[in-house]
């Protein structure tokens, strides 16, 4: 139990006086006891020491990293607990334990508040392959409701201290009461204006931004239906309806026979009208973030399509009719529920980019090899156990994404994909690569074989790494680095051999002259070569979780070294040369 009283005023107003930034011993507003002493009694000293680096980043105060014997800091603004928790979540996630303690003391439901904040600020995970349609929507910068930069954060804290910010969860009305809907858009007027001015581009997209007018906040107005008068805009070549609440499209949209770009992402569409087949000049169709459970059959009839975006839907299958889209150059089917691709995909000889990551695919049809113009093929995060031999025909392939599957072997034909610049097969079940495969790929800059079941370096000798800049072999079972394996890798700057079974380093390690980052953690290393000082460009050296008993004094000659991790070793001493 804490030794200081929880005063009634303290409890009723749900406030805790943290007095941030004041490094004296300020008393509590409701009793003469120093606030720092309260923190000690609450058992929060260790937490503040542990998270001192986060606090230093936020507040720029090195004095926050104090010893355990004295008070860590006192604080200089009075904040209501819910808002303090919110700030911790949004700007200093490492401090949430402290927020939990404070919330618990004052009877607040921290977890519920955390979920609310996370839903507001969390983003979607990024993919290795990131392609975006070239519409106006993508030129807009996404603005957060509040800046999260350290400077802006400190300014808000100062506002707290001056009493300019006093809101709390209990005082905030629900969003429906706090925000008003922006005055309804006069769609008929917009359409009439577009017709009168003979405009060829119409953007009726909504946005995520909250607008403020005369101290009132307005959520953006979203369109729920399109007037039938849209049929009169036959001159349109581009129509964008992003981020609305459309569930259906009117049949009259088929009258827009000159349309070349149609943007419908982030709506609630479950189907498309058959009249879209009349859009014989349509080249780009964007249907990302809708509720399509299948590819609408009308899409197969739009033979003019060149770019088709279908990411983030609920599509479970692709029909054989996909082969009719002879002009298609790019198709994005990422993050759906597709289990199988039809063999007719091979009839789309014009296909350049095919994105299929985050689906339920277990196999790829052999006919994919007929798409000889492919430069980018994304198959990440599926359930593939093998790849077709015909992939060797994809000799224009520059990027191949096959990480996070269940591949046990790779087709030897991949060695004919001479233009590959990245070879990323992370998180599969590979025990070896086909003989000399990497040697046949002379343009490889990035090689990632991490999280497989390799027991040795790929066969192929030094030549296979001649063009490499970054090599990642983390989390395998490699016991030895062959002598001279990197002798031709003159541009190699990053090497990750973390979590293997290495017991020693090769004697030619000093020849890795371009190396800037070297990760050898979690192996069984007992000694390092003396010529490690030859790695004059080394900036990061990670040696944690090994069996090192001593370090060569030459390590002190690495003038560019800025990070040296020696945790969890058996070191008796650190060389004086490290300084």
UniProtKB/TrEMBL annotation:
<feature type="domain" description="Disease resistance R13L4/SHOC-2-like LRR">
    <location>
        <begin position="308"/>
        <end position="379"/>
    </location>
</feature>
<dbReference type="Pfam" id="PF13855">
    <property type="entry name" value="LRR_8"/>
</dbReference>
<keyword id="KW-0433">Leucine-rich repeat</keyword>
<comment type="similarity">
    <text>Belongs to the SHOC2 family.</text>
</comment>
<dbReference type="Pfam" id="PF23598">
    <property type="entry name" value="LRR_14"/>
</dbReference>
<protein>
    <submittedName>
        <fullName>Leucine-rich repeat protein kinase family protein</fullName>
    </submittedName>
</protein>
<feature type="compositionally biased region" description="Polar residues">
    <location>
        <begin position="167"/>
        <end position="177"/>
    </location>
</feature>
<feature type="region of interest" description="Disordered">
    <location>
        <begin position="112"/>
        <end position="148"/>
    </location>
</feature>
<feature type="compositionally biased region" description="Basic and acidic residues">
    <location>
        <begin position="178"/>
        <end position="190"/>
    </location>
</feature>
<keyword id="KW-0677">Repeat</keyword>
<dbReference type="InterPro" id="IPR032675">
    <property type="entry name" value="LRR_dom_sf"/>
</dbReference>
<feature type="compositionally biased region" description="Basic and acidic residues">
    <location>
        <begin position="129"/>
        <end position="140"/>
    </location>
</feature>
<feature type="region of interest" description="Disordered">
    <location>
        <begin position="165"/>
        <end position="190"/>
    </location>
</feature>
<dbReference type="InterPro" id="IPR003591">
    <property type="entry name" value="Leu-rich_rpt_typical-subtyp"/>
</dbReference>
<dbReference type="InterPro" id="IPR050216">
    <property type="entry name" value="LRR_domain-containing"/>
</dbReference>
<dbReference type="GO" id="GO:0005737">
    <property type="term" value="C:cytoplasm"/>
</dbReference>
<dbReference type="InterPro" id="IPR001611">
    <property type="entry name" value="Leu-rich_rpt"/>
</dbReference>
<dbReference type="InterPro" id="IPR055414">
    <property type="entry name" value="LRR_R13L4/SHOC2-like"/>
</dbReference>
């Amino acid at each position: 139990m804490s030794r200081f009283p929880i005063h009634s005023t303290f409890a009723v107003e749900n406030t805790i006086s943290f007095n941030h930034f004041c490094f004296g011993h300020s008393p509590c507003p409701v009793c003469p006891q120093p606030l720092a002493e309260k923190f000690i009694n609450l058992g929060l000293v260790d937490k503040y020491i542990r998270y001192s680096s986060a606090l230093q980043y936020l507040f720029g105060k090195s004095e926050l990293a104090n010893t355990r014997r004295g008070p860590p800091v006192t604080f200089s603004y009075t904040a209501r607990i819910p808002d303090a928790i919110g700030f911790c979540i949004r700007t200093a996630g490492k401090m949430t334990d402290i927020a939990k303690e404070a919330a618990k003391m004052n009877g607040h439901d921290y977890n519920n508040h955390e979920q609310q904040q996370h839903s507001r600020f969390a983003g979607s995970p990024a993919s290795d392959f990131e392609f975006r349609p070239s519409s106006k929507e993508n030129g807009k910068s996404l603005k957060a409701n509040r800046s999260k930069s350290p400077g802006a954060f400190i300014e808000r804290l100062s506002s707290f201290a001056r009493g300019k910010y006093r809101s709390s969860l209990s005082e905030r009305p629900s969003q429906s009461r706090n925000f008003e809907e922006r005055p309804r858009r006069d769609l008929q007027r917009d359409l009439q204006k577009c017709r009168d001015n003979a405009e060829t581009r119409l953007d009726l997209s909504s946005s995520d931004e909250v607008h403020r007018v005369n101290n009132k906040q307005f959520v953006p107005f979203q369109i729920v239906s399109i007037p039938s008068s849209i049929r009169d805009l036959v001159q349109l070549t581009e129509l964008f309806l992003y981020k609305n609440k459309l569930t259906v499209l009117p049949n009259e949209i088929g009258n827009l026979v000159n349309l070349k770009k149609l943007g419908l992402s982030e709506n609630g569409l479950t189907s498309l009208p058959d009249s879209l087949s009349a859009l014989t000049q349509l080249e780009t169709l964007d249907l990302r973030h809708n509720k399509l459970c299948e590819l609408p059959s009308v899409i197969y009839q739009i033979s003019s399509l060149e770019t088709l975006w279908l990411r983030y839907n609920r599509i479970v299958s692709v029909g054989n009719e996909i082969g009719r889209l002879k002009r298609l150059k790019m198709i994005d089917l990422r993050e759906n529920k597709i289990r199988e691709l039809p063999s007719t995909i091979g009839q789309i000889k014009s296909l350049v980019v095919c994105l299929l990551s985050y689906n339920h695919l277990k196999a790829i049809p052999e006919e994919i090899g007929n798409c000889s113009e492919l430069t980018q093929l994304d198959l990440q995060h599926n359930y593939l156990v093998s790849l077709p031999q015909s992939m060797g025909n994809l000799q224009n392939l520059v990027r191949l994404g096959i990480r996070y599957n269940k591949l046990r072997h790779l087709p030897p034909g991949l060695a004919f994909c001479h233009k590959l610049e990245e070879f990323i097969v992370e998180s599969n079940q590979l025990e070896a690569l086909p003989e000399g495969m990497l040697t046949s790929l002379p343009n490889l800059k990035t090689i990632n074989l991490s999280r497989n079941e390799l027991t040795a370096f790929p066969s192929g000798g030094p030549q296979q790494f001649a063009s490499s800049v970054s090599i990642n072999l983390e989390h395998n079972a490699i016991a030895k680095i062959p002598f001279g394996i990197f002798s031709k890798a003159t541009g190699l700057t990053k090497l990750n051999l973390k979590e293997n079974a290495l017991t020693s380093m090769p004697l030619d390690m000093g020849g890795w002259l371009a190396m800037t980052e070297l990760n050898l953690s979690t192996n069984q290393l007992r000694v390092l070569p003396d010529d490690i000082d030859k790695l004059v460009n080394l900036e990061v050296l990670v040696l944690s979780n090994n069996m090192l008993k001593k370090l060569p004094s030459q390590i002190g000659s690495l003038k560019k070294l800025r990070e040296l991790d020696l945790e969890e070793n058996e070191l008796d001493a650190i060389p004086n040369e490290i300084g």
